[in-house]
Amino acid sequence: MKKSILQKWILSSILIACVICAMMFLCVPNLTFQPSIGPKIFYYYNDSADMLTEAADCKEFISVLEPSEKVDSVYVLDYEPYDKSFAQFADLKASKKEVDSFMEVFRAEAKAYYSAKNQEFLSSIGADKNSQDYEIVTSDYSPYVHISYEDKFAFQRYEDEFIDNVKTNSDISEIHVTTPIESIEQAASITSSVTRYDMQDVLKDIGADDQTYTGSGLKVGIMEAGGITTENKHPELSGLDIRTAGDSSTEDEHAERVTRLLCGANGVARGIHSAYVYHTALNSSFIPAMNWFLDNLCLVINASLGFPSNAGKYSWASAFMDFQVRYNRVIFCICAGNEGANTNHYVTPPGTAYNAITVANSTKDAYIRNKSSYEVEKELKMNKPTIAAPGTGVITDKNNNLRAGTSYAAPIVTGIVIKLLGEAPALQLFPEAMSAILIASATNANGQSDKWDNRAGAGIVNYRRAREILKNSTCRAFCNNNDAQNSVVMTSEGFTAKKGEKIRAVAIWSANSKTSAWGDAVQSNIHTDYNMILNFVGSSDVSMIQRGGSTNMEFFVLKISLLVESTFRLDVKQANKKIINDDDYGALAWYIE
Fold first, then answer.
1. What distances in angstroms separate CA 341 from CA 226, 338, 351, one per listed residue?
2. Closest Cα to residue 426, out of 333, 299, 332?
3. pLDDT for residue 26 is more than 50
4. How far apart are the C-alpha atoms of 131 and 484, rounded to whole Å?
5. Cα–Cα dist 370/508, whole Å
6. CA 294, CA 245: separation in Å to the nearest integer?
7. Backbone angles phi, psi at 257, to 5 degrees
8. Which residues contact 4 (CB under 8 A, 6 or more apart)?
9. Residue 100 pLDDT > 70, yes or no?
10. Model pLDDT for residues 30-59, shown as the tens digit of each residue
11. How far is CA 31 from CA 23, 329, 377, in A?
12. What is the Cα–Cα distance from 302 to 320, expressed in whole angstroms?
């Protein structure tokens, strides 16, 4: 009997102990073993066909290097980004003084935050800024650090210290190790096969001949692959304040032509105060270039360059620019590239950034030029290019030869962006709204039906129609700080349309790009999923169209067939849970034509 009682007591004690242990594991999670999560490491090199090829590992990467070949490594760090709410400006009514004041403080705070964080990281891995074997460049406005090694042997000397020893470092999201990736000027020399397109006619055709707003007092950043342009080099640039920096001080006619189209005496935004031209021969130059542009409070960046070696891909440079738009409120306009007639016809990075306004090249008769790049690799599920603009026959070189290329289409759009900022300064705080306005107000390219076109995007840019959207307040910005699945985050007021008219509507929201994402992970990691819904407003609302997909934009054109003038409303609805805890920023715009 006593033995039986003792056995029961022992058994009860064991059960109680098991329950206590189980409760401790449930209530105190840090008692469980959690292995460190380290960075993904990618190795890329230029193969014999000058295409970017991924190496299986570091050993393979080193085996293809020439002894004197430089090596770049870009660290994407995994700490919380600096995020400051812009919700108070969502009505887009703020004055330039209010916006400038806010941005000046915001950028100073962001710089202090990222500079300190990135320096902490460099100290933690023992990096020496005075080393003769490598050069360190840190982003002052984002979690990116670049280390460039003088040659193959310098990289091998520090491989253990800066690559192997950080493989379990949870403060790093990704490391990209590459041979230097060169950018190219995205323009082609054309003579007899191109029709001259006088700038006066260009401005008239895209509704930009109105000079009420010229970009007066604003600053623009210009990224160039071939070199820089200098003040007073061309008569059209006389009097323009041009600042230069970058890898080379070589004067380049390509840079001069881009600057003339954007803000020269006959350009789109001819009242711009200062143009900051940076020579970015390598994609690693994007980090110091953005430091310079943001330090100088440039509102818009024009990039007439690209990286054909990884056309169609979402590169780290694409992710880097997505970050600048999303978190630093930069408007980024870039040419799509001139690969359209090639087998690999894809848009060139960083035009593959989700948050970029990527520009195709149109002709005088409103066709899209066949050499203009289009589409991206299918797993990205990205609508590129965004929009088209005249870039064929609009500019000549010093020998009076007509030029053509997306390089010359991009500054046309950038100039229109600058003009719109002059009228509505608060658009600076919502790049998504700027994109939405340009898309909703575009006109169909020749041969384009009333839908998104794989070569023209939304169509050809039109400043006059974009201004109508501003005047009629048919654009709304939203800041979504909730995480309520299936909730409506933005609603337009009711608007009317009658038989024969068309409703052009777009909803667009920022890709967060806290870190970059590759392959199948891109869609699941980079942005929240929202839907756009068109409602017929009557005795009871009826949903007419719902657009939903896996990219960060929804778009449609609807021709009204109802017999009587009717009232409609647009909603933006959150389809799934948010990707991050930060606010999501987006915009809704519509145009009745």
1. 23, 8, 17
2. 299
3. no
4. 51
5. 28
6. 13
7. -65, -45
8. none
9. yes
10. 333 333 467 989 999 988 777 889 999 999
11. 11, 41, 44
12. 15
Q: How far apart are alpha carbons 429 and 565 in whole angstroms?
A: 35
pLDDT, tens digit (0-9, with 9 covering 90-100), for 62-80: 999 999 999 999 999 989 8
Give the whole-angstrom CA distance, residue 285 versus residue 292. 11
Q: Check residue 245 and report its DSSP letter.
A: E
Question: What average pLDDT does range 110-114 have in this prediction?
Answer: 98
For 196-216, b where at least 16 C-beta lie within 10 A, e where not — what string?
ebebeebbebbbbeeeebbbe
| Phi, psi for 3 (deg, rounded to 5) | -65, -40
Q: In the β-sheet with 40-46, what is the strand arrangement from edge to edge?
A: 52-55, 40-46, 172-178, 71-77, 144-149, 134-138
Contact present, 166 and 180 (Cβ < 8 Å):
no
Q: 584-592 and 475-480: which strand pairing?
A: antiparallel
SS3 state of residue 469 = helix
Give the whole-angstrom CA distance, residue 368 versus residue 331: 24
Q: What is the pLDDT of residues 519-542, one digit of tens each?
A: 445 555 688 899 999 999 987 788
- Number of Cα atoms under 13 Å in the Cβ half of residue 233: 17
- Asked if residue 502 lies in contact with residue 450, where contact means CB atoms within 8 angstroms, the answer is yes
DSSP 336-402: --S-TTSSS-PPPTTTT-TTSEEEEEE-TTSPBPTTS-----GGG------EEEE-EEEEE-TT--E
Task: For the beta carbon of residue 474, count every other beta carbon within 10 angstroms.
Answer: 22
- Chain centroid to CA 3: how far? 76
Task: Please count the other Cβ atoms lying within 10 Å of the Cβ belonging to residue 233.
Answer: 17
**CB-CB contact of 241 with 277 (8 Å):** no
Tell me whether strands 241-246 and 530-537 are parallel, antiparallel or unpaired. Answer: unpaired
Give the span between the Cα atoms of 308 and 350, in whole angstroms: 10
Report the chain's C-alpha Rg in angstroms: 26
pTM, entire model = 0.91
